[in-house]
Amino acid sequence: MIIETRHPEKSLQSVLKEYYFIHIQSNSVIKHIPIIDDCCYDFVFFKEMDGSFSYSSKNDFIPLSNKVFTIHNLKPPYKITIQHTLTFIAIKVQPWANAYFFSAVKASGVVDLVNYDASLLDLHDKLFNEQPLANRYSTVDQYMKNKCISLTPSMEVVKAVCMHIYDQQGILTVSDLSTVFNKSRQYLNKVFKKEVMYSLKKFIITVRILALVKYKMKNASISLTQLSYTYGYFDQSHFIRDFKKVCGVTPRHFFNNVPEFMLRH
């Protein structure tokens, strides 16, 4: 099993969050990859085009047969089932760039992105030519640099909001943001949904729960009660409800079944 993440070239980091490469051999004991939606869309380049994506509490599934795809508007929990080997390279965009890249996506599900941009097919072929990983990342860098992407004024506003939410680990409210940025809640909600394609409240909850999950992974002995208090949840029902919105299962079920590794969608 190979897992590697890499930051994009510095000039691209205002719109791209990270690249990641995963390869799992057919003889691996890992047959399922759980995924948590972090509100950042991905371009996923899939070599084998052979697997399935399951979602929702009913365990609905969709075959993974596209060369380049993203996941849009589905309910957690999410999981990829590996048929034989699995190899993919993904480009994770910054949340304030979601709409820039994906606003045309309307249908829910595993969405074939080649239907929206045929040049992604050529990029897919280049990425899976035999070459060092560093060269593949450079290929993505060049592809994105050729697009000459720049942030719009509203993207700049949303970037500042997102960065503040990250800094506070999601332990804040929309009213708090309204005060910090001297903007009405209505304005912040509207501009955020336009650029991120998620509601501001959903993003805040997601950042908070992901921060909490990472903390628990590094501090296994902490109780769920103390963990919830650490992240500002003093009502256990509120904590469980928010956790299920992000991860699709209760905190106890999640942490009792922590896989060998976690992926963020």
From TrEMBL:
**One of the record's GO molecular function terms:** sequence-specific DNA binding
- Extract the InterPro entries matched here: Homeodomain-like_sf (IPR009057), HTH_AraC (IPR018060)
- Is Transcription found in the keyword set? yes
Name all HTH araC/xylS-type domain ranges.
155-257
Species this protein is from: Pontibacter arcticus
Q: Which UniProt keywords apply?
A: DNA-binding, Transcription, Transcription regulation
Q: Kindly provide the name given to this protein in its UniProt entry.
A: HTH araC/xylS-type domain-containing protein
* Pfam families given in the database record: HTH_18
